[in-house]
Amino acid sequence: MTQLNPLDLLNQLEDILDSYPLIDEVGFIHPSQFVTLNEEAGGSLLSSVGTMLQSEDRVLGSRVSKVNPSETVFWCRDHKLGISTQVLLPLYNMAKQTFMAALERYKMHSNLSVKKDEYGSDSMSSWYASSLDVLEVESEVMKHSRALLLLSCDFGTVWNSRKLVLSNKQHSQIFVDELLLSALVLSYAPKSECSWSHSTGASMEKLSYLNL
């Protein structure tokens, strides 16, 4: 199999998750199974630079060509996502590294925001800029943690980071998103205690938000 850049793999996985928010099942697939999987779905096997991303309506990627099954990395169709077992380790390592860096930035910006609140902000513009920075790093934490949880479902630090971000939110859609993520993780790890706990917590938060 052609050696693929782990960061490129992570970017492609996150792009799939962003592009197909209704994915409700994920699985890890040996490269030899991709052809059979694709034939059962009634599609033609296409690839993009060694990575096949197929859906009902489009193929993600800049260059499309006939694919060697051993080169397939991701398969996406009918709300299902398949990830090649051959890339799990480098993909996990990169996802963990990227997430931990984002979490450190989030903690740093959160601490700075607290200090500004305690001692007073220099100006409204600096407060606004600081708020935008926090929102940006929050988005990074949520994005990278989502990918990492699909590769390591019982990584407590990752679930806790999402709870930390959620604690500052007051709109119901984000709790719905957490329920969908928990369900997606449970599709491949139905006994994951962390996933069940997070799902329950998100449900309670949503009910509390709705005053039910």
Automatic annotation (TrEMBL):
SUPFAM superfamilies given in the database record: Protein prenylyltransferase
- An example Gene Ontology CC term for this record: CAAX-protein geranylgeranyltransferase complex
What highest taxon heads this organism's lineage? Eukaryota
Q: What is an example of a GO molecular function annotated in this UniProt entry?
A: protein farnesyltransferase activity
By what name is this protein known? Uncharacterized protein
Which species expresses this protein natively?
Camellia sinensis var. sinensis
